[in-house]
Amino acid sequence: MEKKSHLVNYPLFRLTIFMAAGIFFFDRFLPDVSVRPLLLLLCVAILPLLLSAILKIRNVSLNYFSGIIVSICFFLLGGILIVQKKNTIGYKWPESQLCYYGVVETTPEAKGKTLCSEVKVKYCIPAASDSINMYSVNRNILLYFIPDSSSYIPRCGDNIVFYSSISKPISDTEFMGFDYAGYLFNKGVSGTALAFGGNWMGIKEEKPHSIKHMALRCRESVSEIFKSWNMGDDELAVVSALTIGDKSELTPELKAIYSAAGTSHVLALSGLHVGILSCILYFLLSPLRRIKGGRVIQSLAVAATLWVFAFISGLSPSVVRAVTMCTLYLVASVLVENGFCGFFSLSLTAFIMLVYNPMYLFDISFQLSFVAVLSIILFFPVISGWIKSGNRFVRYVWSAMSVSLAAQLGTLPLILYYFGTFPTYFLMANLVVGILASCILSFTIASLVCSFIPVVGDVCVWLLEMFTLALNSSMHFVHSLQGAQITSIYFNKVQVVLGFAVLCLLYVFFRRRTFLRLVSVLLALCLIVAADLYKIRKENTASLFLTRSDLYIRINKELETLKSENGLYEINGVRVGVMKSSQWKDVRLTGKTKLATLDYVYICKGFSGNITGLSGLFDIKNVIIDETVSEGYREFLKEECRKLNIKCIEKSAQASFRILL
Fold first, then answer.
1. Residues 498 and 446 both lie in one domain
2. Buried-most residue among 53, 517, 563, 579 (CB within 10 A)?
3. Which stretches in the chain have pLDDT values below 50?
4. Going by C-beta distance under 8 Å and a sequence separation of 6 or more, which residues neighbour residue 659?
């Protein structure tokens, strides 16, 4: 029976893989293709299937051919989905400042002196006095707006009117090593804007526009309840992140501690939290199993409660996919006789979410989540079978370690590709996290339920704070251990592919141990090492970056800010002067002195001199003007460079100037 269940599950997994492959292929290699030719190809591919179904032709060769055609259809479907989605995100924004009307999609967060929120721009009004000419936009942007004490700060679901210029995000991948514009685009954001005080107005909306807005407002209300409990700052931050997915209170130091311990996943709502909550609910509702049909009622009650939890946490994609997967598992475990349906739940959830939004495929949390679950399904039975004991405690500990080891093994190639770090004590840390996270979730529920009971509610809050303090202290202890985290081990794309090839070969080897399969695993590992040696030899070059009014040096993935008291630098024979103060304004040379050479002079905001004065101090080869310099002063400096026959380079906004060493 179990074997039959596996055969039923494989086709859906294969079709999901083909659809994901289509999404990736058309996004990376044919980004500008139109939807129409893809639809035409899909219709042509479907036609043989319809003819064979109408004529009722049945033979082995035709079945094999039909399987290939179906796979091609799902590949094309992936292409259609991604092309259509990109068309709904991309937009050519006007360069001038205009008046826009939109809806606040996310809770505004403090970003320095501004508030930042994702806004769905509904309409653009070319002339503020003429609302007849407004036209529909329906695109999402990141809006930074400077708060005004006299203005209403909008909540999620409120309307907002602002006057600003919306621009397409710019990536500085060479400097940051991160494609910021691509990241925002994958999130559905096509532009960024800054609205100054007096140029925006929040409009209160009593009825939210969507269920998503209602869920985020609900999360805000729960967050306010947490703040009223007067816990410590770090404890409040962890409770908010662990229970409702609100990470706005987390400090960079706290994130670094959990990351080094290998437990940062506990701060982002995911399958771990849903799994813990479902176990708690199953335990609380276990008396229902004593009545007729109690097993079905119990499963339905757990599934319904999990969706309430997803709503309270703001319906974030990570929670929705975890709850969807768990719901499918619960329903199938009741309907399917053998109860094995994890693989089917994983495949169906991935399929549904990619159809809903194909951009999820490029989301890091989506990739890590599904790879971790798939790895647990494949490797947990193998790893857990290594140690067998009749002691219940030993079985529990080894089972928890097996889950953690299986998940870490599957996600290792992606972790090394995106983050380049590996936590060495993740097994020990995750044992503690599993227990304490269960206690924190339990006492959070108890505190919310018993909040109206004076003594009981206070005791629950105190216990919640103590368990959270214990979690933070234990993670800080793991972080303080010597060698807690191995850093700067970055995989490239070739190594990621080889890494997953190793995992596939390793799984095949565990299924049936043969010498040839072991050799194939070792050979794949050797290829990863060879790729790393080639990468080190090829990429071991240094670059200087002039940006953000400072000088930086990057060697591979390592980025360092250079400091100098007078703003003058010499690195590998390249001489650079960073001018961002008035220190050189009235400096003069006396007597006959040979001028020192500056290959690059970087003019930044704060510099109040001129190029003529600097040319009396230095032999200047190139002048780079930062985007922070005012337009009038910029034109003056450019004119000076032209007269002095010095090459002038204007650095564009959000982009750096690179010098290869």
1. no
2. 579
3. 1-9, 339
4. 543, 544, 545, 546, 574, 576, 600
